[in-house]
Amino acid sequence: MEFRASSIGLVYKLLLVLGYILPILAMPTFLTHKQVHRFSMKKINKFAVSNTDNSFETYNYTQVLDHFSYSPQAYQTFPQRYMMDRTNWGGAQNNSPIFVCLGAEEDITYELDMGIMTDQAPKFKALLVFIEHRYYGTSMPFGGIEAAYANSTTLGHFTSTQALADYATVIIALKKELNAQNCPVIVFGASYGGMLASWFRLKYPHVTIGALASSAPILYFDDITPSYGYGSVVTKDFKNASEICYKRINESWDMMDKIASAPQGLSNLSILFNTCQNLSSKDGLYDWITVQYMIAAQYNFQEVEGICEAINGLPEGVDTVSRIAAAVKYIQGPSCLDLNESDSTYPGWDWQICTEMVIPIGFPAEKTMFPASPFDIKEYARECYLKYGVLPRPHWATTEFGGHEIRRVLKDFGSNIIFSNGLRDPYSSGG
């Protein structure tokens, strides 16, 4: 594939511009610690805003089920959704660029507000394309979500490598349809989508000339990044906001343990934290509080500073646990805290972390402000096997995509990939 020098220069200029902007805008889209996944995904969907701008046209590409097998079932197809905005495109005749968002672990309509693409499209006269990830949104094999998620056999085609091949086939077919073979493609993604964007550039360099990977923890596999890296950044965020807030959070767990272990202790915690149901264990409450601290650091929906103000704002003499309860009220509002609230999100990411996306987040003692919870691959695998009947492959991501000695790999092989991180983002420790 040949590109005009002017087109390549334009795209390189774009990559330079985005390299300055994205560290500020980096916003990941997922958490992976197995104890808190249910809460984190719910929080994201609660705050996600679907873009219904009429400038987006919706299409379906007839996608094959399995790109890497020639068995009869591999030739089954499903409709893969993609959306396109031609408003600013300079056209194929001008070799104007194509910006492609590689859909991640959610409905593609939630990705349409990726401001960096829409903001830069007018400047570069770019066509915007958003491709949905298989097994999310409406891009369901086997006719629908119930059949697609029926068992590990139907879910067996739900992998990142299949998703990358999906994107390649859609992009190639779309460029042919638009007679845009000479239009350079840049892929975008955030968090898991950012991982996909970087891996796509490595796997399909003939399809895209560059990738922008925002908050992409491609180094959070195997032992490349310490398991406590994520928690240490969350801890740093709170410590930077308020040293006394950090100390109060750090000491609160032991104090709550003492309350929980006393007679009527769980009942007292239920009253103090205004839970909708009486606590039968402290674990659910601890998980919920832990997730809120993580979400504050990662997504900034409830600011770290706001939580610390709620903790520190009570008069002198108020005990630490009551201060944490005040922070919970700040986050939750006046309604009771329902720890049993059902999770309506797709179980898709849960399947992915139980198979290939094994990101070993843990909280070893004294490394973070959280209660000690080291990553335990045996327990992790046991939970996955009980749920899906499959065992995770913790080393597959680095086998398939690399990660060890990444600087040498990117220098010798991968090029034109921007890795951007907000330094308050906990996943910056692995990307």
Automatic annotation (TrEMBL):
The keyword Cell division does not apply. One of its GO terms (molecular function) is dipeptidyl-peptidase activity. Gene3D superfamilies: alpha/beta hydrolase, Serine carboxypeptidase S28, SKS domain. The chain crosses the membrane at residues 12-31. SUPFAM superfamilies: alpha/beta-Hydrolases. GO terms for biological process: proteolysis. InterPro entries: AB_hydrolase_fold (IPR029058), Peptidase_S28 (IPR008758), Ser_carbopepase_S28_SKS (IPR042269). Keywords: Glycoprotein, Hydrolase, Membrane, Protease, Signal, Transmembrane, Transmembrane helix. The keyword ATP-binding does not apply. Belongs to the peptidase S28 family. This is Lysosomal Pro-X carboxypeptidase. The lineage of its organism: Eukaryota, Viridiplantae, Streptophyta, Embryophyta, Tracheophyta.
